[in-house]
Amino acid sequence: MRGTTRDPRRVPEIEAAGIEAAVGDPYRLATLMPHVANTSAMVWLMGSATGNDVEALHRTRLQTVLERLVDTPVRGMVYEAAGTLPAALLREGAAAVRRAGLTWQMPNAIIEVDPREREAWLAAMLAGVEDVLAL
């Protein structure tokens, strides 16, 4: 399992959880795409993203990632459609993931469990990954 962060200071936290950490910026896809090697599922955890232009993470950046995944070993996408960002924006991102699924036969799971409900959220995310890998 590989986890990315924009903040290099978070690498030790990710590694402490037993996850291979990588620094990547979803606004600069060239920093993310090399990390999909040997990856079967991508989980887009941006429902509570912060920073400048978070709308792009659910629009242009997400759409570009979905298009680029077609030519990678990634078999499916799990999308976090809940969090602190506006519900309309998260619905828009979920719709893009569903369209990608139809267009490129890309298995996907849309997770609408609030990440503040940690146990339920984690269970839903794990089930989403299992679902896309089972297809």
Distance between the termini: 19 Å
Largest sheet: 3 strands, parallel
How many helices does DSSP assign?
Answer: 5
Rg, Cα atoms, Å: 14 Å
Uncertain regions spanning at least 5 consecutive residues = none
Strand order of the largest sheet: 3-4-5
Helix proportion: 40-55%
The quaternary structure here is single chain
Q: Beta-strand percentage?
A: 15-25%
Order of helices and strands: EHEEHHEHEH
Mean of residue pLDDT? 94
- Number of E-state strands: 5
Structure class: alpha/beta
Q: Rough shape?
A: globular
Keywords:
135 residues, alpha/beta, three-stranded parallel beta sheet, two-stranded parallel ribbon, 16% strand, globular
Architecture overview:
With 135 residues, this protein is α/β, with parallel strands linked by helices. 41% of the residues lie in helices and 16% in strands. The chain has helices spanning 11-16, 54-57, 60-69, 87-104, 118-134; strands spanning 2-5, 20-23, 41-44, 76-80, 108-111. Strands 3-4-5 form a three-stranded parallel sheet, with helices on both faces. Strands 1-2 form a two-stranded parallel sheet.
List the helices and strands and how they pair.
Layout: E1 2-5, H1 11-16, E2 20-23, E3 41-44, H2 54-57, H3 60-69, E4 76-80, H4 87-104, E5 108-111, H5 118-134
Parallel strand pairs: 1-2, 3-4, 4-5
Helix pairs in contact: 3-4
